[in-house]
Amino acid sequence: MAAVAGSAGRSARPVVALALLLLAVSAAAPVATAGASAAVNGDRLRAEQIRKQASDAAASAAALAAASRRLHLDRARHLRLLSSLHRNLTNTLRALSLAADAATVSDPFSDPAAAANASSSRQLDLQAKDLIRAARAAIADSKPLFDPQLKIQRLKDAIFAQNELLARAKKRGAFASLIAAKSIPKPLHCLAVRLTAERIARPEQYAEPVPPPRALEDPALFHYAIFSDNVLAASCVVRSAVANSIDPSKHVFHVVTDRMNLGAMQVIIRRMDLKGAHYEVKAFEDYKFLNSSYVPVLRQLESANLQKFYFENKLENATKDASNMKFRNPKYLSMLNHLRFYLPEMYPKLHRILFLDDDVVVQRDLTGLWKIDMDGKVNGAVETCFGSFHRYWQYMNFSHPLIKAKFSPNACGWAYGMNFFDLDSWRREKCTEQYHYWQNQNENRTLWKLGTLPPGLITFYSTTKPLDKSWHVLGLGYNPSISMEEIRNAAVVHFNGNMKPWLDIGMNQFRHLWTKYVDYDDEYIRQCNFAPP
Ligand SMILES: *[C@@H]1O[C@H](CO)[C@@H](O)[C@H](O)[C@H]1NC(C)=O
Ligand SMILES: *[C@@H]1O[C@H](CO)[C@@H](O)[C@H](O)[C@H]1NC(C)=O
Ligand SMILES: *[C@@H]1O[C@H](CO)[C@@H](O)[C@H](O)[C@H]1NC(C)=O
Ligand SMILES: *[C@@H]1O[C@H](CO)[C@@H](O)[C@H](O)[C@H]1NC(C)=O
Ligand SMILES: *[C@@H]1O[C@H](CO)[C@@H](O)[C@H](O)[C@H]1NC(C)=O
Ligand SMILES: *[C@@H]1O[C@H](CO)[C@@H](O)[C@H](O)[C@H]1NC(C)=O
């Protein structure tokens, strides 16, 4: 836990500190009521002292929280600005090249239309220059955001110097690590910004091939779906899969991210040595069928009520209750997370696809999955139940008549993270419609509270095929006692849990399994202070 207090993602600290302080304040009170006669005065003084310290620290923490929130918002705004510039620049460049093509086949001096074109092309030139200037300024502006925040550092020191509070930090471990996992660490943000800047500076180098490679739709190849807004994590999934495949040229990676991270994701994947493997990088916003008239989650996201539920940022109340905090995490409702329910429509030409989370590492050639007889089932997954744990009743509301009528409370849960989907069976069983039905029923969150696992368990209730456990070993983000033997034999290991290997709170004994697929020689990764372990 010392790692959290000492060096976790910067934006994580204030909230943690605040939580600790609230505890400190409430813990101080009983001291005053203890003891009798002579002891009372001493106790009261001590209690006063503690209360004073706590209230000073609480004020510092509130200031720190506010500063940190501002910092976080600033960074998000910058990334949005850069990505908008990127989009505009790409459009301008496309127009420019069209104009250039037209110009080569005509003579501006004898042809007035061509002259008009030439002048509009000059206009475009100017526009492009303006955009590039704006991009440079934006990048320069964002520099201070990546430099150490001296003020915050000082406040932090004042707060964390108190051993008393550190001891309490240990007790609040789960809460603290949830916050740390939720916030974007500075190096990761830096990486996204630098890569986006590179994408802007050299658009021609990273342009997607037109037309797209035939391999993307070739059902005879091995296809992977990776949906992520974490460029480093996604790149490690692809690198590990390529590194361990027997014939990379037979593998195709479909990486989907959001608009904001598209440029960065294109650059990081393009810069990798894929050894002949094929790939595409897209933004989910580019799939036009994913609109709120079709997708219940988008409709629900747009509903004002839910927006409030997920995005209101009331630190005061949030710090009181870790589980409540979890419900507020927008991650649980982001479209990127729900894309997994649209695989057949996203890849209409494919028969089968392997879905990988961005917090996995591939350790073996996976083509054996394509040889498994799926018995007409849709979802190949490892089961996670043991004893009474990880059974359906833990994931959904069995007091609800709809749930009670349809599912067995003791049905065995399975894991997302490495799922082999038979898309033909999916289309035949109309699983997307099922998912829509249930997601609509859950509009007011009475069937399940959060995440994609409950709707997954519901959607693929009778269409899941259990896979051998060695395909997918889970828990490297929370369970320190997984056997090394089990990990060595795993085709895919999964850092599910809050202690992600890219965070300072990642578990040391497992981290190397992930870091060995980080390209520490890459200049952008180095520039953003990722150091080899
Ligand atoms: C990009 O273009 C849009 C539409 O023309 C405009 O609203 C936006 O301000 C531009 N973004 C930047 C950063 O110039
Ligand atoms: C002017 O540009 C347009 C496209 O921008 C092109 O279709 C047209 O042929 C051009 N005209 C001439 C005379 O070059
Ligand atoms: C929304 O998606 C549906 C199909 O999923 C499509 O028919 C419709 O045209 C889309 N609407 C827009 C505005 O793109
Ligand atoms: C925190 O919760 C209490 C009770 O639910 C409410 O009265 C108060 O206004 C909340 N505080 C904030 C800042 O939302
Ligand atoms: C919850 O939503 C369902 C389906 O939309 C609706 O039938 C039900 O009345 C709602 N319940 C409450 C308490 O709002
Ligand atoms: C479970 O469902 C019942 C019946 O619809 C509802 O009254 C209850 O509030 C639900 N529980 C939760 C935690 O949403």
CATH topology of the largest domain: Spore Coat Polysaccharide Biosynthesis Protein SpsA, Chain A
Main beta sheet, described?
7 strands, mixed
Assign the structural class, choosing from mainly alpha, mainly beta, alpha/beta, alpha+beta, or little secondary structure: alpha/beta
Q: Averaged pLDDT, please?
A: 76
Q: How many extended strands?
A: 10
Shape: globular
Strand order of the largest sheet: 3-2-1-4-7-6-8
Strand content: 5-15%
Give the helix tally: 24
Rounded to an integer in angstroms, the radius of gyration calculated over CA atoms is 26 Å
Oligomeric state:
single chain
Pathway: Glycan metabolism; pectin biosynthesis
GO molecular function: polygalacturonate 4-alpha-galacturonosyltransferase activity
Protein name: Hexosyltransferase
Enzyme class: transferase
Can you describe this structure?
- This protein has 533 residues and is an alpha/beta fold.
- Helix 22 links the parallel strand 9 (472-473) and strand 10.
- The protein has helices at residues 2-7, 13-33, 37-104, 112-146, 150-160, 163-171, 173-182, 186-201, 203-206, 231-243, 259-270, 296-302, 304-311, 315-318, 322-328, 335-338, 343-346, 401-406, 423-429, 431-441, 453-459, 484-489, 508-515, 523-527, and strands spanning 222-227, 251-257, 278-283, 352-356, 360-362, 379-381, 418-422, 464-466, 472-473, 492-494.
- It starts with a helix and ends in a 6-residue tail after the last helix.
- The protein folds into two domains: 2-183; 210-292 and 334-527, Spore Coat Polysaccharide Biosynthesis Protein SpsA, Chain A, CATH 3.90.550.10.
- The strands form two sheets. Strands 3-2-1-4-7-6-8 form a seven-stranded mixed β-sheet. A three-stranded mixed β-sheet has the order 5-10-9.
- The longest helix is centred in the first third of the chain and has 68 residues, at 37-104.
- The chain is globular.
- The structure holds 2-acetamido-2-deoxy-beta-D-glucopyranose (6 copies).
- The site of one 2-acetamido-2-deoxy-beta-D-glucopyranose has 4 residues, from loops.
- Residues 1-28 form the signal peptide.
- Pathway: Glycan metabolism; pectin biosynthesis.
- It is found in: Golgi apparatus membrane.
- Keywords: Cell wall biogenesis/degradation, Glycosyltransferase, Golgi apparatus, Signal, Transferase.
